[in-house]
């Protein structure tokens, strides 16, 4: 019997120590005056490590502990950090997550620090990037890097149909597409219309002068401008200019010329260069075609101070350093992510014409609506777009339904 | 006293989480509530009422039913069939086929998804290439609402057959040779031996495989998550994926918890039915 009791106690202890380890607080062992700053980055750590080392060299006594979190698990990880109120000091936020986490009170108000550090001033960054750092009138982040969508096109094929510079307007886009498909024959498409990318139809709607959710939190999905946009995109499917159900590999199709254009972000420059060296010199990047405007979306990431941070002042100092030109250019070098700092764009590192096209597009780009319900509305909008283009639903009816749903999610009724 | 460790661990890691989830399912907990518990409000049964009015949830229940109805019998019969065939011999060929059938079960689902994604690809895929030999038109395996469901079933079927086959093989080898010898003396043919000795004596293994497979298919999750994300038009959305989407994509924890309780109750009911239907155990 004694033996069994001993065993019970041992296993009790074991189970409790397991629990304790689970909740364990890996505290900053603040020994002496050396402080550790915990920084969470999305992606791979080798992109940020060099910058962190630069910072450490300049600020002796501070250790920057960079933890890299893969993008697809980052949201879960942040949720856990909020739930346990125990996370990093500095956190990199995807721009679309800001409203959600700001509403949860997980991000510190940055305005006192912005007064303190001139490098964080809003004027230094692209307007679109600054908009992503705002939530209900408060500044909760500082822009870090930006991305936007622009038009990739095969110069040789587009020259063949009379648009060597790429299409400049919606009409030209449609005309070029028709000619490309006609010339190419079966199995040829002009460009993919990415219905599964929630920002894709939104970009076209902005170009058509439509709002998505206006400043009074009213969704605009069933208004004429948005409806017209969806019908315009739908016509690309209906006329066989875009592949339905896209599992066509974009780069492969771009390489063999069965798809002469696509709209995507700066990360595709490197991908196309690596995967399709055969077409070097036969493709280029340009700004998006315009209807009323040629607006594109702006995304990327911002830096925030986690509200449960124990070293907010140190965190702010680190962010101020990350907003400076030196760090921004270093990050461009290690990760190919484009600097949010406007001044950095005059550097010759960004003078490549393809990158410059993105720089030009950035001047006319805006973020997705910054309401915390947006993620769910975007999902519903994607589903509606799919119903219309693949499910064959009537555009106006489906968009009326979508608008009702969005109103409901926004709490408008 | 001696069961205390087991009871403590069970309470700590199973029962308490279930109770917490049950409580959460009656609240409007979201990210704001997670950050500050004072923002959580009780909403009574409204999560449960809303979820049964949610067309996507109803669709996911229907899809899950289809997965179960097609998937379970297919897996049980095919894995039993494969086990019977592999039990005939013990040469190197049979041994290597055991490995071949078992391989998918231990392969990472993401690796599987990449390979099957290419097989199913509408433009370069092997399946469409094979169809083209017979002059058949190319199919949109993962983009057509009906076909996508079947495509996922085929993938999951291929993946789950190995493990169940091993269970059947183990059970087959536990059947004493003397029964067959006695039957042979009485002049029983191969078919009769199978019908009256093998299948009845596999009863317990069949029961076990059926229950685990059934629960597995009710919780069908990884395949739609990595292959189709529930699309097109929610045609491959399973209940588990619906819960995941609401909980971790949209941070609607209360709503997701109520969905997981509906799923939990369905699994319990189905398992109880299984036990009720199960005939008396065959005695050796």
How would you portray this structure in words?
The complex is a heterodimer of chains A (413) and B (284). Chain A has helices at residues 2-23, 49-58, 71-84, 98-103, 111-116, 127-131, 155-160, 170-184, 199-207, 224-238, 250-255, 267-275, 312-322, 325-335, 353-362, 374-389, 395-409, and strands spanning 35-42, 62-69, 90-94, 134-135, 138-139, 142-148, 150-154, 261-264, 283-286, 296-305, 338-339, 365-366. With 413 residues, chain A is of the alpha/beta class. In chain A, β1 (35-42), α2 and β2 (62-69) form a beta-alpha-beta unit. The longest helix of chain A is centred in the N-terminal third of the chain and has 22 residues, at 2-23. The termini of chain A are far apart. With 284 residues, chain B is mostly helical. Chain B has helices at residues 4-24, 31-35, 46-51, 55-86, 92-102, 109-120, 126-133, 145-173, 177-185, 190-201, 203-218, 222-227, 239-249, 253-277. Chain B is globular, with a radius of gyration of 23 Å. The chains are: A alpha/beta (413), B mainly alpha (284).
What percent strand of chain B?
under 5%
Largest sheet of chain B: none
SSE series of chain B: HHHHHHHHHHHHHH
Task: Determine the strand fraction of chain A and express it as a percent band.
Answer: 5-15%
Estimate the helix proportion of chain A, in percent. Answer: 40-55%
Distance between the termini of chain B: 35 Å
Give the uncertain stretches of chain B in residue-range form.
Answer: none
Strand elements of chain A, count: 12
- Overall 3D geometry of chain A? globular
- SS class of chain B: mainly alpha
Largest interface, with counts of residues having CB < 8 Å to the other chain, equals: A-B, 36 and 33 residues
User: pLDDT average of chain B, as an integer?
Assistant: 89
Computed over alpha carbons, the radius of gyration of chain A is 25 Å
